[in-house]
UniProtKB/TrEMBL annotation:
One of its GO terms (cellular component) is cytoplasm. It comes from Candolleomyces eurysporus. PANTHER family: HEAT SHOCK PROTEIN 90 FAMILY MEMBER. This is Heat shock protein 90. Keywords: ATP-binding, Chaperone, Coiled coil, Cytoplasm, Nucleotide-binding. GO terms for molecular function: ATP binding; ATP hydrolysis activity; ATP-dependent protein folding chaperone; unfolded protein binding. Belongs to the heat shock protein 90 family. Residues 107-167 form a coiled coil. It is found in: Cytoplasm. It holds the Pfam family HSP90. The lineage of its organism: Eukaryota, Fungi, Dikarya, Basidiomycota, Agaricomycotina. The keyword Transport does not apply. The keyword DNA damage does not apply. Transmembrane segments: none annotated. InterPro entries: HATPase_C_sf (IPR036890), Hsp90_fam (IPR001404), Hsp90_N (IPR020575), Ribosomal_Su5_D2-typ_SF (IPR020568).
Amino acid sequence: MTKADMVNNNLGTIAKSGTKGFMEALNSGTDISMIGKFGVGFYSTYLVAERVQFILIHNDDEHYIWESAAGGIFTITLDNEDQLEYLEEKKIKNIVKKHSDFISYPIQFAVNEVEKIEEEVEEERKTDDEKSKVKEVDEEEEDKKIIIKKTKKIKEKETTNEELNKTKPIWTRNPNDISQEDYASFYKSLTNDWEDHLLAPFDLFESKKKSNNIKLYVRRVFIMDDCENLIPDYLDFVKQNKIFKVICKNLVKKAVNLIAEIAEDKDNYAKFYESFGKNIQLGIHEDAQNHSKLAEFLRFYSTKSIYEQTSLKNYITRMPEVQKTMYYLTGESFAAVKGSPFLETLKNKGFEFFLVYPIDEYAITQLKEFDGKKLVRVSKEGLELEETDEEKAAREAEVAEF
């Protein structure tokens, strides 16, 4: 039977006799009794069942399930074994958590819990009287009954309602009422990360990992997490059409503002920069539109800040008046560059320079300048340093002598 036969000729039609059609096809003029002559045999199943399900299997057609409760309506669905997984408790819970975890109304799920209870039960056993071996015995000498108490484990099923969407959307609350513990708890429940939200994930720079840190919700319903066009790569730790470009621009702006807020707390930002400093440098390399703003978040050690990283802005505030250029030297540590011939020259002039690790130099070369001051590598060939007032006076005096 095909789907068309199921709908039009057989199950979907009352008083359709398959036997009658078969006999007519034989062109037999013999008037014989035909089972199912009136075509209501199948529907007699409703005498004993409220709902009937018929599964169709045909070599030349897909498998279908016909189902009806005899109310004048029937449904036909494609029989797909892969869909059975959506009846599993684990699958249902995962779907609700993924798509409807932040719905305002509670979603209840009926769970069958099996509990084993130990109960004492009495069993009766009959034994013949050892002395009675004759067939006829008096009623008083009837088989004795022995009562034995045993403990049995009985399974009891109890149905309880479990709330699946207990996590509340933190973005709907007043930020002033949200504590750091609330942020940490929400972050871990959303990302399944065991680390705090200011620590870099172990696979931060894994090129083959799926970027799903940015999740799109509409009216608290999850829509998608494959949002590669919504955020640039260097901000993937926050994790095209015209709308996407606008969203991307706003997300970058929001992320930059959040980093600026973190930077206001020196100790907290030091932890943040230790984990995500490379992302900021990557942003300077990739995001030309925002690299000047991102440069404010860079931190380096310098000759005047050996034990604590300093910003480019703070460097400028310490520059002598005659110094017009910002200097940096590439090296693994101050001990590694202490033999540099440029070190003593800068020190005598009172000029400060940054210690830039080799892996960080690509961001500096991309930046080129900051706040109108050029960034120049100290070891650059033909470098000319600014003259101090003392050096200028000495040079002019020397020229005057000649």
